[in-house]
Amino acid sequence: MSQGAFQWPVRVYWEDTDAGGIVFYANYLKFFERARTEWLRSLGVAQRTLKEDAGGMFVVSETSVRYLAPARLDDELLVTAQLQESGRASLIIAQEARRDGKLLALGTIRIGWVDAATLRPARIPDAILAVLQQKKA
Question: Do the Cβ atoms of 95 and 107 come closer than 8 Å?
Fold first, then answer.
């Protein structure tokens, strides 16, 4: 991951773990979601106002996650988000979860832009795309 990646700390709670005491695999998607949301917010792109002001919203259309090592109860993770690729209607975000610098999980998430009223695919508004592309490393 590039030095320019957005970083968001996440603490592992009981609710995040499975019977073996490690983070349940699907919860990494929740951690990634939180980091993406905060990344967008840091760029001035608040998801609630997207719907109200731009008439659209981002939805996840594809995920790919590779799990390398487990996280456990009370671990503090650093979850990253970085624009990997942008198109007119979707973005691919590269994400990682690390503990003390050790890579635990990495993935790519494709988010697509849809019209909020119809949920049909649409073009990402130019103003939003410009903000996101400026921050691409």
Answer: yes
